Amino acid sequence: MRCRRRRADALAKPSPAWHAGTMTTQDRNTPAPAVPALVEAALADYPDATRDRVLQLREVLWEVVAAEPAIGVVEESLKWGQPSYRPATAGTGTTVRIDRVSGSDDVAVFTPCSTSLVAEFREAHGSIATYDGKRGVIVPAEGEIPLPALRDHMREALLYFQR
Q: Which residue, of 43, 45, 51, 97, has the greatest Cβ tally within 10 A?
């Protein structure tokens, strides 16, 4: 069974706004970039708590980028209709997607199922989160979230090929 979902929008050619959410080294002392229109549109029909949680985790991701110069420039786009973040420099890290869990209002930090990232998170942090197989750490739409653990998880993903 393959864990990769295929949808028509995953095959679509990127629009000019594809790399609208990038952060350069000069931007590291500024807050997260504005939410690109593509991402806003993807979140438009979400319940408020779910949209707020996705945006909160997006802020956490940009904090990780700002704190770790080795990550470099990060591109924000949509992959499979989900907000996605990937280092622009090949060989740095893997894609992090932050989106609603199918059939739920909860949100997950998704990484490719071909990586060991979720297994490593589960081994290190166990029951502080629930999981979507080998590809996602699930965060409830409301309530407490394990921020230090998620920051580490995002950093590990964005530097995955530097390990």
A: 97
Q: 25-76, pLDDT tens digit by residue?
A: 334 455 689 999 999 999 999 999 999 999 999 999 999 999 999 999 999 9
What span, in angstroms and rounded, lies between the C-alpha atoms of 46 and 9? Answer: 18
CB neighbour class for 103 (10 Å; exposed up to 12, middle 13-18, buried from 19): exposed
Q: How far is CA 148 from the centre of its chain?
A: 15
The residue behind tokens 């708590």 is 49
Q: Where are the domains of the chain?
A: 23-162
3-state secondary structure 10-50: HHCCCCCCCCCCCECHHHCCCCCCCCCHHHHHHHCCCCHHH
0.70 surpassed by pTM: yes
Contact 64, 154 (CB under 8 A): yes
User: How many other C-beta atoms can be found within 10 angstroms of the C-beta atom of residue 53?
Assistant: 23
Residue 82 sits at φ, ψ, to 5 deg, of -115, 140
Q: Measure the CA–CA gap between 42 and 44, rounded to whole angstroms.
A: 6
The architecture of the domain spanning 23-162 is Alpha-Beta Complex (3.90)
Q: Alpha-carbon distance 93 to 110, whole Å?
A: 14
